[in-house]
Amino acid sequence: MELIGALLVSTLAGLSTVLGGLVILFKFKKDNITKFITASLAFSLTIMIGISITDLLPESTYILLSNYGITKGIFFCFIMFFLGIILIKFINKLITQAENKKSDLYKLGILNMLALILHNFPEGIATFMSSYKDINIGIKLAIAIAFHNIPEGISIAVPIYYATNSKKDAILKTLYSGIAEPIGAILAYIFLSRYINDTFISLILILVAGIMITLAIEGMLPKAKKYNLNKFLYIGMIIGTALILFNYFVFN
């Protein structure tokens, strides 16, 4: 029963990404589409940077410093963070070569999906393992994860939908990202339950932080600024910041 409950909690947390993707079902007038894209990208990039700064990096860094000491801990943090930067640049290059005929928005949506799959995979492990040990702790963690998975779904669905005009494609891409959490949970239980520990998860999450911050600054911000709609850029950032602060003070 503990196994089923833990898997269910992890699955629900992951699939909350799809809820964010459902924003594309709202109809906008043609004149408002670029305003919506600008605000959505600004909102999403703020969420990605905010999650990295307030959640992934501090907690993971603390664990590594505690386990390895200051010198080794900082070294591992820097190595994993810069590996994340290098990895997303490499993936971006591969996608650009493979998808030359696709729009920049579509490529951005795919990059967001890949980054968030990497993000959701260790989150799925953490949620599953927590729920398996104590279902109440697991549920609290799942709620916190779902809370920031919803805007992450927006960051995938919006650029893909407005690049392809395909609601099905946009929703499917958010599903692919969200399903990484229960997949991470299943793989953790089958193959890694003996080896998963705080250090392993911390290293992966620092890698993910490097990916998300780089993607937000180098990928999403230029696209959000492209339409020269600074008012909506700032609105998206302000709402994203408010959500991050709410998440931080409520769930920490």
Show the helix and strand layout.
Blueprint lengths: L1 H20 L11 H66 L5 H30 L1 H30 L2 H12 L1 H13 L5 H28 L4 H22 L1
Explain what this protein looks like in three dimensions.
This protein has one domain. It has helices spanning 2-21, 33-98, 104-133, 135-164, 167-178, 180-192, 198-225, 230-251. The chain starts with a helix and ends with a helix. The mean pLDDT is 83. It is mainly alpha-helical and 252 residues long. It is globular and about 55 Å long.
Notable features of this structure?
8 helices, mainly alpha, 252 residues
The amount of beta strand, in percent, is under 5%
| Integer tally of domains | 1
Overall form: globular
* Structural class by secondary-structure content: mainly alpha
Briefly say what this structure is.
The protein is an all-alpha fold and 252 residues long. 88% of the residues lie in helices and 0% in strands. The protein has one domain.
